[in-house]
Amino acid sequence: MLSGKRRILYHAVADVIFLVHLSLVLFVILGWLIPGLYYIFLAVLVLVFLADIFLGYCPLTPMEFNIRKKLNPDRTYDTSCLAHYMRAMFGKKPRAQTAEPKTFLKKHSFKLSLIGLFIV
Question: How many CA atoms lie within 13 A of 75 on its CB side?
């Protein structure tokens, strides 16, 4: 059991990670609209894309969910931060974890197709 001060600290850190994650998502979606930040936008976009290809997830998601799991061990979380909060917003439970992980080509076939179209 966590002490009161430690619970407050964990909750604050988890909220900060969530806010950083949310701002990163918004920047990836809307960053191209700000001409002065175009090169930063491209760098962030490449980093997000590489993290997804090599890790298969955003590193901020397990960081936040692990801290929140320490606060409430009975709570279940989705594999994706966006999916988890969208499902929570609409009152749905997190999806069940699949036992069989996707292979690289199954997971990224759509992205690889987009890269091919972009190159052409």
Answer: 12
User: Which alpha helices (DSSP H) does the chain contain, by range?
Assistant: 4-30, 38-54, 60-71, 81-89, 104-119
∠ CA(86), CA(89), CA(90), 5° rounding?
A: 90
The span from the CA of 118 to the CA of 120, in Å, is 5
pLDDT of residue 105: 55
What is the b/e burial string over 80-106, where b = at least 16 CB atoms within 10 angstroms of the residue's CB? ebeebeeeeeeeeeeeeeeeeeeeeee
DSSP state of 21: H
Amino acid identity, position 18: F
Binning pLDDT at 50, 70 and 90, where does residue 3 land? Answer: confident
Sign, CA dihedral 8-14-16-18, equals: negative
Kindly report, residue by residue over 55-96, the tens digit of the pLDDT. Answer: 877 889 889 999 999 998 888 887 778 788 888 888 888 776
Crossing angle (nearest 10°) for helices 4-30 and 60-71? 150
